[in-house]
Amino acid sequence: MGSKYCMNHVCRGTTSSEWKKGWSLKSGGFANLCYRCGSAYENSVFCETFHSEESGWRECRICAKRIHCGCIASRYVYMDFGGVGCITCLKRLEVHSKQSLQIPSNNSKDTVSTNGIKDVHPGVVENRIDDDKFSTQRLLQLTKAIGAIDGCSGLEQLTHEDPLLKSRQSSTRIPNLTQQSLSSTFKTVNSRPRDGVKNSYDSLAQPSVNFSLMTPSSSPITILPFPGGIAEGSEQSKGSLEQALNVLPKPPKPSPTVGSEVNKGTVSQARVARPPAEGRGRNQLLPRYWPRITDQELQQLSGDLKSIIVPLFEKVLSASDAGRIGRLVLPKACAEAFFPLINQSEGIPIRIQDITGKEWTFQFRFWPNNNSRMYVLEGVTPCIQNMQVQAGDTVTFSRIEPGGQLVIGCRKAINNGDAQDSQTLASTSGDSPGETSFSGATGNLLLNGGKTSDDSLQQSISERKKLKNIKNKRLHMHTDEAMELRITWEEAQELLRPSPTAEPTVVVVEDHEFEEFEEPPIFGKRTVFTSGPSGEQDQLAQCDSCLKWRILPVHALLSAKWSCSENIWDLKRCSCPAPEDIRPKDLEPFVPSYKESKRRKVSENKMPKGGEPSGLDALATAAVLGDNISDIAESSVGATTRHPRHRPGCTCIVCIQPPSGKGKHEPSCKCNVCQTVRRRFKTLMMRKKKRQSEVAQAKDRASLKIELGRVARDVEADAMGKEADMEESSKGQLDLNCDPHREDEMLAQTAGMSLTTLVKSVALPLDTYLPPAIAQNQENLSFIPADTDGRGHQ
DNA sequence: CGTAGGCATGGAG
DNA sequence: ACTCCATGCCTAC
């Protein structure tokens, strides 16, 4: 990396500099370049060839006017990879890509690949073009063809006493500029102090050139191009005329319309992403952040501000960005490329002006995030509101040259099919969707994009992606309140079923068989248990296909997705065309929301959906449909044997039991309720065994400890002649034998009871009901205990 | 209780 | 596997 001190005259005197990898214009090779000035001359003050006495100014082979040597300090020449061009007629591309320059020099080289261009692009240099092509006549033709560019009229801006130029003065217009004016311009464009808001954008990583773009009715609009665009592409070889007008970098895949528009002497209105302006790490910017301002808009803006506008980047506002929190997340790469370097998390206040000149002050800061940073602009709400933008719209960041003043603008989203409000805003504000405007919304800047169908299509796809991006899952869940899950753990438990692939292991505990499952349970279909007048029980399930209700045996276990075809218990009702088992009128008492449920279900089924609801989806659906499970249970089971601890509507395994003496289950009953009871009892027993084991171990340890203590006290008693302490030790022993888990003890003793009796006596903590696998992972589920404040876990 | 600040989380690329 | 970043969410006020 060499010296830490950039010795380029631009940075001269500074004590340190940041360096980045880049193409050195001095050596033509890959080197460390100063972030500030782009210079690779860490130890030298000037480029050796800059204004060298011998080489001096050189001439454009096309317009025969002066060009710079292309050194790093030669700011007027756009040099990314070492290309050299005439700053006046912009024919540098021709020179850069097709031929080398015929540069007189004292070292007798008839062809000079300036600044090591030969090393960088050897192929380019070798592709020479006959000098005839660059005769004066040819030059004039090209100049006329350029038209709007007005040839090399900007030549007068340059001045330098150059003997080589003098030799050409007889045939070409030679500027009479002074070194002073040159330096003045140079400083104006490039010299920006490092610190401070307005002048701290140490982004002159690459030399730049002022490209003059003449419009028929306006003064030249000078635009700082992006170093990366032109030199990188192969499109330059298509001809100088196009590139001459392509003052902004081309998109990676330029639209064919761009060229045609250029040829017509107009400015491209195509909204295409352009590689960003120079800046730290700009090459790492994702294309999604590339500015998509059209040439026309840029011209308009530049003219309006009477300044050089350098589009930097843009971002589609997310919901968070546009929210009232007032924090706009800046893409990291953009923040680091175009915003001041900050070392403290608190950041710095930064002033950004809008098109009206109104200045906004934001706090530019970052948060540590995963060993990285997350950059934000704080306090953007007023500006966002002023621009009348919202999520889905795009904010643009540009820079005014000289001075480096940041400018914020906006562009309304084109396709607001998903962002209805945005469209409303656009219409009310008079903006057409998809147009670029700037805060303050001056009407003359709202230009029609003039997109072709291809452009529109591309743009539409792009916008759709953006909208999709801003409407991600979280947002979707949040905005779609119907998806909000409000279901209690108790309700969730009732949907648990053994995994269909799970093979239970039957264990016998105190004469009761219990099924153990290695696999965690799954969510089954919610069904409704009914009890008839005579006490017989039925189970009602709704077909997911035809939505008809079917009467099933109480022991039937249904998967989350169930249809009539799976009704193996009633062959007359095993297909959807079969009439419903129960009339809606009769179903109402059990499913109060039956009608509403069915109505919603039908409309829901009309919506295209990718997958089938299952598991959590089934729960979500239940919640969405408003099928208050509590209500269902309460009404469906009628009078239940509710445990006093449970509230009305409780659907726990206790409360859904039929009243005593009614519908008593046989010991071998395999209905859902009984199986659940058995499962839970199994869990109880396992926990009890575990606890007993732990207690036994603790008891052993305590006994040992007590025994040791007793020995010690015996010794002490013997010594002291006292025996009173013996009783105390006995008390301690008794305490340790006390089992604090009386409840489990009691429950364990119920093993011999009938299931009904067992159920009656069970009053367990909620987590006890849950199989261990679920209990452990309950925080991973999106259920919210009914009695929480709704903030979820944690 | 409401709000803002700050960090954590997890989906997406 | 890793980074980025949209958003969740805890904490302090």
Task: Walk me through the structure.
α22 runs antiparallel to α23 and α22 crosses α24. The chain has 27 helices and 21 strands. The two termini are 49 Å apart. The relative contact order is 0.05. It is of the alpha+beta class and 794 residues long. Strands 7, 8, 9, 10, 11, 12, 13 and 14 form an eight-stranded mixed beta sheet that branches. The chain has a three-stranded antiparallel beta sheet with strand order 19-20-21. It is flat, with a radius of gyration of 40 Å. A hairpin with a 6-residue loop joins β3 and β4. It binds a DNA duplex (13 and 13 nucleotides) through α11, β10, β11 and α16.
List the helices and strands and how they pair.
Blueprint: E1 19-23, E2 30-34, E3 58-59, E4 66-67, H1 92-98, H2 117-120, H3 122-126, H4 136-146, H5 163-166, H6 179-190, E5 211-215, E6 218-223, H7 227-232, H8 240-245, H9 256-263, H10 295-305, E7 308-316, H11 319-322, E8 327-330, H12 332-338, E9 348-353, E10 359-369, E11 372-378, H13 381-387, E12 394-401, E13 405-411, H14 420-429, E14 436-438, H15 453-470, H16 473-479, H17 489-493, E15 496-497, E16 505-509, E17 512-516, E18 522-523, E19 528-531, E20 537-542, E21 549-552, H18 584-587, H19 594-606, H20 616-624, H21 629-636, H22 672-720, H23 725-737, H24 742-749, H25 755-761, H26 766-769, H27 772-776
Parallel strand pairs: 9-13
Antiparallel strand pairs: 1-2, 3-4, 5-6, 7-12, 8-11, 9-10, 10-11, 12-13, 13-14, 15-18, 16-17, 19-20, 20-21
Helix pairs in contact: 22-23, 22-24
This protein binds a DNA duplex (13 and 13 nucleotides) through residues 286, 318-321, 323, 325-327, 329, 331-333, 345, 367-372, 374, 378, 469-470, 472-475, 478, 791-792, 794.
